Amino acid sequence: MAALLAGSAAGCATVGGSSRDPLEPVNRAVFSFNEKFDQVLLKPVAQGYRAVLPELVRTGASNFFANIEDLWIAANNLLQGKVENSLQDVMRVAINTVFGLGGVIDVATDAGLEKHNEDFGQTLGRWGFGTGPYIVLPFLGPSDLRDGIGLLGFDAAADPVWNLDHVATRNAVYAERAVNNRANALDAVKVMEEAALDKYRFVRDSYLQRRRSLVFDGNPPRGPEAPE
Amino acid sequence: MTAMKRVLSLLLFLLAGVALAQDTAPDVMVKGITVDVLNIIKKDKDIQAGNPKKIAEVVETRILPHFDFARMTQIAVAVNWRKATPEQKKALTEEFKTLLVRTYSNALTLYRDQTVDFKPLHMKAGDTDVTVRSEIRQKSAQPVTLDYDMEKTASGWKVYDVKVGGVSLITNYREDFAAQVRESGIDGLIKALVSKNRGTGAGRA
Q: How confident is the model over A64-97, as pLDDT tens digits?
């Protein structure tokens, strides 16, 4: 895997277009497909979901999913050597599960235990792996080679929802989470659509910048490009 | 004579006030504007309901004066700036400004009950380029960082880039603009900005 990442990082310096996006024609096709899927199905469902369910319920759902995610965040913090943050994440899960009605209420944040944002793609980045080329995944959206490997190879394997034995339940909970996430993003996506000349590029460059910021926990070294 | 003296001292006092405003530390300035704008939004039902005229007015009178749009446009247009004629530069700056104001207005309508925390500013005496860091906190969601890159100019500190969650607005536009110029030249970029601002530009899918 290391060789694969290193090779892809070295091979992505092309002339014209973005050097980070050598697969742009394919990516644009997948992006259009995702946009269509969003327009026709995901966005309307998310809008309905937001219109029908009271905010309290939607917040509860968000908190619940955030809580089961915190254990994997703890593991990733540990893998990145951030022991204190990792312990904090474990504390969060304990407190929210016991005192927050199984994670529906986020009491840990109110108690001063801040939530962290970690996943295996970030862990790989922290370990020094470059992003490789930008990749738009069908249904899942913007990613890159490193984050795609992190997401599909590790995050999914550690995802309690994806590991539910009962397939119908698993699919239902997975869909509910996707809709809830989309509902949370409705406003932000609208602002972005209004801002962009070319949405594909805007989404791509936002994604690459955002991930770089996350790998460095909000303090990336100055300079426009990520380390390759 | 005493009246004259009084007028003079008043003048001096006012001048000192102006000088003071120019010397205001960048983080104090941003904090002041933020509190100011949030108070306006909290009191105004029309703004909360999304009245575009009123929101644009707040952005134009309270936020706009603190942005260096000429600089922002230059950074976003990057190497192509040198190739642009004075008329093109003027058009680019105007259209980009309109787009940024619209984007900012759209973002402001999303304000609900978030609070904004400012982080301590790391600034040495004589620094003319700093980043003011803040964090938007909201219930049951991770805080979103909001950073302002600022430069000291003759007329005080001015914002030249805004980073939301580590994503620089200007960096995003730089790639977008460069590609537009590659495809259809500087005039093509201006045309794209104009149609976007008039709400007719759907952009490429």
A: 999 999 999 999 999 999 999 999 999 999 999 9
Residues pairing with B136 in the sheet: B116, B144
Whether A197 sits inside 8 A of B171 (CB atoms) is no
What residue type is assigned to position A217 of the chain? D
pTM for the whole structure: 0.85
| pLDDT tens digits for range A102-113 | 999 999 998 989
Give chain A positions within 8 Å (CB) of B203.
196-199
Cross-chain CB nearest to A197 (options B141, B176, B205): B176
Q: What is the 3 state secondary structure string of chain A?
A: CHHHHHHHHHCCCCCCCCCCCCCHHHHHHHHHHHHHHHHHHHHHHHHHHHHHCCHHHHHHHHHHHHHHHHHHHHHHHHHCCCHHHHHHHHHHHHHHHHHCCCCCCCHHHHCCCCCCCCCHHHHHHHCCCCCCCEEEECCCEEEEHHHHHHHHHHHHHHCCCCCCCCHHHHHHHHHHHHHHHHHHHHHHHHHHHHHCCCHHHHHHHHHHHHHHHHHCCCCCCCCCCCCC
Query: Where do runs of H (alpha helix) occur along B24-85?
Result: 26-43, 45-48, 52-58, 69-77
Residue that the structure tokens 């500087």 belong to: B186
Tell me the two tokens of residue A204. Answer: 């791509």
Element at B162 (helix H, strand E)? strand B156-164
Alpha-carbon distance values, B173 to A95, A190, B53, B150 (Å): 43, 17, 25, 18
Q: Do B166 and A209 make contact, defined as CB atoms within 8 angstroms?
A: yes
